[in-house]
What does this fold into?
Amino acid sequence: MMAEILSGKQMSEQLTQEQQERVAALRAQGIVPGLAVILAGENPASEIYVRNKKTMCDTIGVHSEVVRLPNDVSQEDLIAHVERLNQDPAIHGILVQLPLPEHLDEAAVLARVLPEKDVDGFHVVNAGKLFAGLPGVVPCTPKGILYMLHQAGIELKGKEAVVIGRSNIVGKPVAMLLLQEHCTVTICHSRTQNLKDVTRRADILVAAIGKPRFVTADMVKPGATVIDVGVNRVDGKVCGDVDFDAVKEVAGHLTPVPGGVGKMTISMLMENTLEAACRSAR
Ligand code: NAP
It folds into this structure.
């Protein structure tokens, strides 16, 4: 069997076109969606992420503002910027680029972003809503994963889903979304015993670990849908958490890295920004 490759690149390009049209329609009504990104310190990876977000905003017509703060910015100064953006009617989404410099309290900063402007979906109010099955802002990567599964027409109801990884930004929220779709969900982590026995049960397998090519072909049930969230650098090249070449021989569907989930994450950030702009206009 040769897996069908789910191209996040293709799906995000199509979404970009749709979003351009939606922004044009909003602008015609006098609504200009706005996204602010706060970047504290000098982290080369963060610089790239922020640049990509800004480029995407420019492409679809979203107003964007990048607030650059020095490495030694104080917690109070950073929060003052968050508060200013909370009050700014031209800004509908606020994103604090993580990781923050070590001396800053990430949770305390994220808690100051207004939940309705929290386009990352990291605020505890939005996390709680997701847990309770209430409408709120859904984190971008998990939202993108569900978008890909829906677009590919993959049946979820009643299926066994296994998520490897229990982070607040990927593992836990994607597990909640799969549960809402009526999957039977298992979350695995570094203390899970007999991991392979668990993953081999999965009709849907999500790998969000951060270990290059960790998921090998013998961990995958033939025909399963495998979603690779990992972004790892090996010898200067980006690879996922899944051993792509081997797993594609076993899986039914597989996302590539690069060109998979990562592309959807940024599209979903735009989606959350447009939704926030529409909400604020109501
Ligand atoms: P994280 O916070 O480091 O969490 C990693 C998870 O993997 C933890 O829950 C950890 O378990 C688990 N784990 C580690 N070793 C394991 C093992 N041997 N067996 C089973 N589970 C194991 O990472 P994250 O933020 O969720 O990110 C995961 C990956 O996705 C990273 O490569 C990251 O760069 C990537 N990512 C990509 C996107 C995108 O847009 N494509 C977005 C976000 C993240 P414990 O909890 O027990 O430690």
About this structure: Residues 8-28 form the longest helix (21 residues). The chain has ten helices and eleven strands. The first strand starts at residue 4 and ends at 5. The two ends are 50 Å apart (CA to CA).
